[in-house]
Amino acid sequence: xxTLITAIDDSSLPLAKSIIERGGAVAFPTETVYxxxxxxxxxxxxxxxxxxxxxxxxxxxxxxxxxxxxINRLVDHIPAYAKDLADAFLPGPLTMVYKSSGxxxxxxxxxxxxxxxxxxxxxxxxxxxxYVGLPIAAPSANLSKHVSPTSARHVWEDLNGKxxxxxxGGACSGGIxxxxxxxxxxxxxxLRSGLVTREMIARVAGCCGEYKMKExxxxxSPGMKYKHYSPRCGTLLFKYDDAEKAxxxxxxxxxxxxxxxxLCESSLRKRFTGAVVLELGSGGEEIAANLYGKLREGEIIAxxxxxxxxxxxxxxxxxxxxxxxxxxxxxxxx
Length: 334
Ligand code: TXA
Ligand code: MG
Hints:
This protein is an alpha/beta fold and about 325 residues long. The protein has helices spanning about 10-20, 45-55, 80-90, 125-130, 150-160, 200-205, 245-255, 285-300, 315-325, and strands at about 5, 25-30, 35-40, 60-65, 95-100, 115-120, 135-140, 165-170, 180, 190, 210, 235-240, 260-265, 275-280, 305-310.
């Protein structure tokens, strides 16, 4: 199959609609990462998404809708705090989990009685959702376990030959996946951290919990238990305060002939003169926007990525560190 990459316009939108209507998959941009979308009412189309990505079949998908779509058609109960949060943050990088009305295919939620709904703010995503006029089930448009795509080119690198169409909306400004928020209980609970932070949610809803997976308990957000976001090269993760140790390791690996590359926030660059360094930028938002692109660049140029965790904590960095630690096997060098 030829994979077409094209801008979102009067000729690509009808093509996207016809692919979705006949049960196919279309990659599209959002403000977080690119998604791989299919008609959420069509079980075979949704199952095809799992197949294309090699995604485990117990990891549910998010349904994406246009901002004017009436989500009461898809979910049963929207608590008052969720309405306030929707007013404050939607359209935007916040996915809200509700009790499902059972109207979309059961394959979307992998048999759970809840449904994750997202209204992306990206103008191209909104155009696509409006034109197609259907709720679109979409995971990130990468092969399962690989780094999520933040450009049309990244999608092409993973899915070339497997899908017909990639709608190109430029680089994603957000860079890490949406915050997933459980809105089925008395208070909202963050299942996956992202650009809409727990602090921001608590300011609107009065409080906000954070889900921590307990040993032996079934995962509330099944995606969190899988290996994720991993570049296809070796990785070693160092704490910010261990930057000198990271440099020693870099020098040793290079001496052995290993193509090692350092990945760190930009303020550390000057401590590594002469070394091959990929810079993440500075501050939570900028590092989030650059993270996946730099991990993908790293896997192309390096055998071994020597990653130094940024210094900042809290806010957006909670989501960034969650992704970075998972990408590096969740273990620090000492
Ligand atoms: O920013 C994003 O959310 C991107 C773009 C494309 O919208 N999508 C994305 O999808 O990251 P995916 O499939 O890679 O991650 C979906 C996450 C998983 O962690 C999954 O477990 C969780 O959402 N999820 C989906 N439905 C759920 C549900 N009913 N209950 C709890 N967690 C759910
Ligand atoms: Mg994903």
